[in-house]
Write the C-alpha cells for this entry.
Amino acid sequence: MQTAIEKKLASYVSLDSAERLTLSRLQHHRSVRPAGATLVDEGQPKPSAYILASGWVFAYKGLRDGSRQIIDVQVPGDLIGARNVLFRTSEHSFEALTDIVVSEVSVGDLFKAFGESPRLAAAMLWAASCEEAMVVEHLVDIGRRSAIVRTAHYLLELGARMKLVGLGDETGFACPLSQFQLADALGLTAIHVNRMLRQLREKKLLTFQKGRVAFDNLEGLVALAEFDMSYLDHSAPLLDQRLRQWGA
Amino acid sequence: MQTAIEKKLASYVSLDSAERLTLSRLQHHRSVRPAGATLVDEGQPKPSAYILASGWVFAYKGLRDGSRQIIDVQVPGDLIGARNVLFRTSEHSFEALTDIVVSEVSVGDLFKAFGESPRLAAAMLWAASCEEAMVVEHLVDIGRRSAIVRTAHYLLELGARMKLVGLGDETGFACPLSQFQLADALGLTAIHVNRMLRQLREKKLLTFQKGRVAFDNLEGLVALAEFDMSYLDHSAPLLDQRLRQWGA
DNA sequence: CGTCGGGTTGATAACTTTCAAATTTCGTGG
DNA sequence: CCACGAAATTTGAAAGTTATCAACCCGACG
C-alpha cells in the first residue's frame, strides 16, 4: 500500500522504482505516539525529522502568558521539523493531535537519500516549500482577514491538503481539531470560533461537527474566503520542467 | 569595504579568502532601483534572487479588497526571493521601500557557488532559515500579541537585524517605514499604529520620528515586548559544530 | 501659493474578548 | 447498559480593543 507521503510526492514528480525504494527506506523507523505526545520541545536541538504516516500533529509556540499560537498543522504525508532540523534548534514545539504513526528520519539518512535521488530531493523540497507558503498564507489570514473569512479560509486549506493525500474530497474531511485548537491556530478565542462556525452553518456554507468538516456549499465558501489554492497546487509539470532545466 | 551580506555571513561562520571571493562574485550584477520599484510581481515566475546591498525592500501579498499584508521586510545583507526561486513561482510581490542597490543572482550561479563552498552554502541557508524563523515570529506576533506589544516587538526585531549588519545599535536605527507600511506589516490600521507609537513614546520606551526609531528605554521595551532574540542570534559556534559533524 | 502625502487627534462604530453559565458529548467505572 | 465526571461546545451580556470616519496640521515640492 502507498503511504501518504508517497502519494503526495508522486503527485509532484514521477518517481521510478529505485526512488520509491529510497523513499520507503526513509520510513523504516516507524513508531506510534499517543495523542497529546510532544515530538519536539521548544528550544531543544533535535537532529532528526519525522515523516507523518497517519494522524495529525501541530507546531506551536507558547507565550509567557499561557496562550499559544499554532503555527501550522501537519497532516499525513507531511514532513515534520524539516525547517528546524538542518540548521537551527527548534523554535517551536510539536504535539500530536491524535494518535499518530511517524517515521523518524535522521539528517544523515535524509542527505543520503537526497544524494541518491535528486528528483526525490526536489519533490521533498517542493513539499517543504509548499508548507512554507502555507505559513505565509496563514500570516495573511491572521493579519488581514476578518474572523469569519479566516475560519473559512483555514478550513478550506485543510480540506485541500487532506484531499491531496486521499483523506478528503469536495464534501469534507475528518478534522480532529477542537475549537480551542482551531482558535489557537486562527488567533481567535474559542468562543468566537464557535460563533463563526455557527454563522458558517447558518449560511449553509459549512458544518463542523463531531470531528468532521462538511462543505455544504463549496462554491459559496470559496467565494467568501477568496480561496485560491494555487499556493499548494500540484504543478507537477512545472517541477518536472525545472528539473530538466538543471539537468537532474 | 565589506558589503552587508559579507558582514552578516561572516558573523555566522568564518569564511576563507576563496569563499569570500565566491561571495563577492555573486554580487557582480549590481543595479540600482528607485524607491517604489517592484522587484518581483505576484504570480510571475522569476528564476533569480537578489542580494540586497543597501536600502530596504518588503515582501507583501495584496488582497482583493485593496488591503495588503506585508510578509517581511529585507534589510541590507538579506537575500530576496530565496524561497520562491528554487521551486515555486512567486507567491508575493517585492517592492523597494527606498532607493536600493541589489545584485541579481541567477539560480545557476547560486548553485555553482554552493558547489564551490559548502560552508558558504551553509551560511546562506542559515540566513534563509533565520528569515523564515522571523516569519514565524511575525505570525505569533500578529496572532497572539496586543497591538502595542506587537509594535514594540516588531521594531525591536528590526533593530536587532540592523545591528547585525552594522546599521544600528542599542540607541536605535534609521527606519524608512511609513506608519501605513508599518500598519500593513502589523495587521493594524495606520491610525492605530500612530496611537501605539504615541503610547510607547509617552511611556518613554521608544520614539519613532523622522525616519528614526530611538530606543529610549531598551530594557523596558524588551520586557514589554517579551522580546527574545534567540531566533535570530548569531550562533556561529553551533553552525560550525554542525558543519564539522557533516564533514564539510 | 496650492497641493499632496504623511502624521496626529477625536468621536463613533464594529469587532472580538472576557466573564459567566447552561448544555452536550464522551470516556470510564459500576 | 447506565451513571458519573471531565472536557468540549454553545449561548448571553458586558467590557475592551481596534477600525472607521472626519478633521486638522505640517513639511516637501512644483
The first helix of chain B runs from residue 4 to 12. Residues 146-147, 188-189, 191-192, 195 of chain B lie near DNA strand D (CB under 10 Å from a C1'). The CA atoms of residues 64 and 142 of chain B lie 20 Å apart.
